[in-house]
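Q: Sequence in, structure out?
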Amino acid sequence: MGAGVAVTSEHVLTAHYLVLGASTAEVVGLDGKTRPTSRISLDHESGLALLTVEGAGFEPARLADEDEVRPGIPSSS
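A: Exactly. Output:
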């Protein structure tokens, strides 16, 4: 069990060790619904995994504009 962040409505980015060696995985959204993944893509160099969750309809995380982000500024959400 671990955490991830929606980067598109159907893709969740997470740590690769959470799904390393898995043939299947499930994602639980903030609504509490469990959704199966249709694809797991691993990048061993970065240590990240991208999970494809067909038809999930997640709201992707919002990235701040360049002028909004500076070292030492805590996030607003």
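DSSP finds no helices and six strands in the chain.
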